[in-house]
From TrEMBL:
<protein>
    <submittedName>
        <fullName>Uncharacterized protein</fullName>
    </submittedName>
</protein>
């Protein structure tokens, strides 16, 4: 998904940030995969920590439903092709692509983060809805990566060099 966003950019962006013949450059692809993997692992760990926040104590909140249950329920309710299919069988249907599951997982994550924020601040009454959180998050993702700026290929790149550059915002 992230590579699709990078490779879907304008030609001017590609000329500025990607090496010549980047689509066939094995070293570039390997280093890009490594960089994206590192970023995703960090995001995964942050997400796990956020989910644990507020889920302890004597009366822990009800845990969020499993993704497979959400997928089954959503598709059964919204897609007439699945009306007669048992909810448990829907997530394994070949028509439910990984991309569709990822979209539902993202929405589930944002709903959960909103819920955890409400639990952590019980006295506060004015909270944005999870839809507002989703809009704000997507706007941030569209305009700027807040975690780090990625200069996919360092400006000092010379033919034959294989250095990927990325710099954390401080």
């Amino acid at each position: 998904m992230a590579k699709g966003l990078i490779f879907g950019q304008s030609d001017a962006f590609k000329c500025m940030h990607l090496p010549p013949d980047y689509q066939r450059d094995v070293i570039f692809k390997k280093e890009l995969n490594s960089l994206l993997g590192t970023i995703l692992k960090g995001e995964k760990n942050n997400f796990a920590n956020l989910l644990r926040l507020g889920l302890g104590g004597a009366n822990p909140p009800i845990p969020p439903p499993k993704l497979s249950d959400i997928i089954g329920s959503v598709y059964k309710a919204m897609d007439s092709r699945f009306e007669q299919t048992p909810v448990a069988n829907i997530p394994t249907d070949s028509r439910i692509t990984i991309q569709r599951q990822a979209r539902l997982a993202y929405i589930r994550t944002m709903i959960n983060l909103n819920r955890l924020r409400r639990i952590a601040n019980p006295g506060q009454t004015a909270f944005p809805s999870f839809w507002d959180d989703i809009d704000a998050d997507l706007e941030t993702r569209r305009t700027k990566n807040t975690r780090c700026s990625i200069n996919v290929w360092t400006p000092s790149h010379r033919k034959g060099s294989s250095t990927l550059g990325w710099y954390e915002n401080r």
